[in-house]
Amino acid sequence: MTDKLTQNKQENNDYLVEVQSLVKWFPVQTTFIDQLFSKERDFVRAVDGVSFNIRRGEVLGLAGESGSGKTTIGRVTIGLEEKTEGNVLFDGIDLSTLSAEELRKLRRRMQVIFQDPLASLNPRMSLGDAIQQGLKIHYPETAKDHRDIVLDIMEKVGLSPAKFFYNKFPHQISGGQRQRVVIARALVTNPDLILADEPIAMADVSVRALLLDLMVQLKDELNLTYLFITHDLATAKYICDRIAILYLGKIVEISELEEVYGHPLHPYTRALLAAVPVPDPHDRRKEPMPKGEIPNPINPPPGCRFHPRCPYAQEICSQEEPLLRELRPGHQVACHFAEDFLNA
Amino acid sequence: MSEKEILMQVRDLSVEYNTRLGEVSAVDNVSFEIYKGEILGLVGESGCGKSTMGKALMRMIQPPGKITSGQIIVNGEDIMAYDQKQMRDFRGRKVSMIFQDPMTSLNPVQRVDEHIIEAIQVHEPDTNTTEALARAQTLIQRLGIRKNRMKSYPHQLSGGMRQRVMVGLGLVLNADLIIADEATTSLDVIVEAQLADQLRDIRETFGVSLLVITHNIALVAELSDRLAVMYAGHIVEMGDVESVFDTPLHPYTKGLLKSIPNIKLDDTEKLYKMPGEPPNLTHPPAGCRFHPRCPFAMSICSQVEPEFSEIVPGRMVKCWLYLDHPDKEEATIEVTA
């Protein structure tokens, strides 16, 4: 078992990550008065039955609006948050069977990049020290090589000359460079999986393209697998191989990226794609937008969760929950009337 | 829009921030105009001075910032000469502003109707509450908020609805210009698109001008009539949104437009990677502030600052490629309309 935790790339199956019927509910804080009248506890149903796999070496995108559960899925997938129900397997290992110590060992193989680089770096730690932390924890036996490993990874992410940046502090460098530090810190333990939670949402347009390119290049060079969480479908297009569209804690559509963008079958996906502004004043959006906003996940609508906003909703939609069905090769969608869009 | 009437004329506006590290020239000698009934998009990356510019137009720059020079002319009057009382009347009645985070702009212990009634009564003390309430209700309904929402507190509304209340506050005094500073940025895409539709709609119905300040260039393409591109405290290019997107003149605009992710283009299209990052404005580069990152930089560019000039009718650009100078050896590019 210990071997399995520490050794990389066990080629015994195609999937690095398997998520099966994952459920994550957060209890809502109850007040004293509620307890007095023994009111039943409410739950925020952040993730409510989600299944997907991530193939080795692919970039899977999780896209959705705020409150869709995309960040929670990411956090549960790498064991930062405990699941309520369901299974998460990393390289065939069920995370829930691991002790805290074993999970800590396994963490070397799955690292995270968060949205705000300034918030994820300790302002009083030099960049070199920050990047080195992972090595100190996971490879204490090779302490004398740490500096060289750090310098090497800094060059790889474009913090060059690395010796110049090594002793700098986060406030002395630009936002784009900070995000490179965070990327370097995630890569230094030689992981298999990177959870990238809105990694470039804070960066300016002119810096974004560089960071995206860097992430793709590092993926190929270091055999990485990404779980890429984003609200920005335009950016997802430039990095994801497959994409899952989430709405209120459920996957409504999942397939190869070109398949979803080229043949969106769920009304929500269609609205989401139409809402993305296009940088071309000759091609302005004409489609009307669905009314309202994403509802409260404490009491999600019955049946299809999108039905109150859906322009095509019929009676069945408010009564029966649609299941994910494969309508085109490798293309699953959860809508009672998705066939109507097959030839659209 | 054949005959364009000028609503606001900005001349040589400069804003500086006095910081521990020295003077930061956030807006440097900027001149432009806003026409009646137009939607003008002001785009740029973080730190380019676009928000400072928006605030300066309402004279809302707080110390250590200061408007160091310039004129802002509305209806033939320079508002820089206004006293406090005149400014108070100007803000709200002539120009109003919507910010990125409506939660911090709305009073958490005031209901929606109280906000609007207060705005009316501050500026029009003669209006009684019933009258003000009636006005507030008509407006709120036109913005697509249900009547029973009038009694809600800000935290009971969704992000999109809060932002619509802010739009309502801007409209209730019949302001001529609404400045929207990253107003859609914290909203989800679908809600952002709804608000964009709404902004276009209020321009049609109320004839108000909008200055949309944003980092999201795609949104400006979707929404605005004209576009101004800001870089390091300067407007470097300005013109009709179609013509700027079709033929960007300034090298910064060219690079910027090629680096925006586009959901419609084929996958083969690679994003342009602009070298470097925007400069620190305590020590801006000499000459043209973009020259260290510019692929077309000439020797003149690092020495003399180019004038913001009209190259073809309606197209302004601040770049030596299109201007003559005695010390310049390279040929000047002729642009035809």
What are the key terms here?
heterodimer; A: 344 residues; alpha/beta; eight-stranded mixed beta sheet; 12 strands; globular; B: 337 residues; Rossmann fold; 24% strand
Q: What this model shows, in words?
A:
- The complex is a heterodimer of chains A (344) and B (337).
- Chain A has 344 residues and is of the alpha/beta class.
- In chain A, 33% of the residues lie in helices and 22% in strands.
- Chain A is built from 14 helices and 12 strands.
- Chain A has an 8-stranded mixed beta sheet with strand order 6-7-8-3-9-10-12-11, sandwiched between helices. In chain A, strands 2-1-4-5 form a 4-stranded antiparallel beta sheet, covered by helices on one side.
- In chain A, a hairpin with a 2-residue loop joins strand 11 and strand 12.
- In chain A, helix 6 crosses helix 7 and helix 9 runs parallel beside helix 10.
- The longest helix of chain A has 18 residues.
- The radius of gyration of chain A is 22 Å and the shape is globular.
- Chain A starts with a helix and ends in an 11-residue tail after the last strand.
- With 337 residues, chain B is α/β, with parallel strands linked by helices.
- In chain B, the strands form 2 sheets. Chain B has an 8-stranded mixed beta sheet, with helices on both faces. Chain B has a 4-stranded antiparallel beta sheet with strand order 2-1-4-5, covered by helices on one side.
- The mean pLDDT of chain B is 88.
- The longest helix of chain B is centred in the middle third of the chain and has 18 residues.
- Chain B has one domain: Rossmann fold (3-Layer(aba) Sandwich), CATH 3.40.50.
Structural class of chain A: alpha/beta
The total of beta strands of chain A comes to 12
Q: How many H/I helical runs of chain B?
A: 10
Overall CATH architecture of chain B: 3-Layer(aba) Sandwich
Rounded to the nearest angstrom, the radius of gyration of chain A is 22 Å
Give the mean pLDDT of chain B: 88
Strand content of chain A: 15-25%
What is the CATH first-level class name of chain B? Alpha Beta
Major β-sheet annotation of chain A: 8 strands, mixed
State the helicity of chain A in percent bands: 25-40%
How would you describe the shape of chain A?
globular
Derived structural class of chain B = alpha/beta
Q: What is the rounded Rg of chain B?
A: 21 Å
CATH superfamily of chain B: P-loop containing nucleotide triphosphate hydrolases
Strand content of chain B: 15-25%
What is the CATH topology of chain B? Rossmann fold
User: Count the helices of chain A. How many?
Assistant: 14
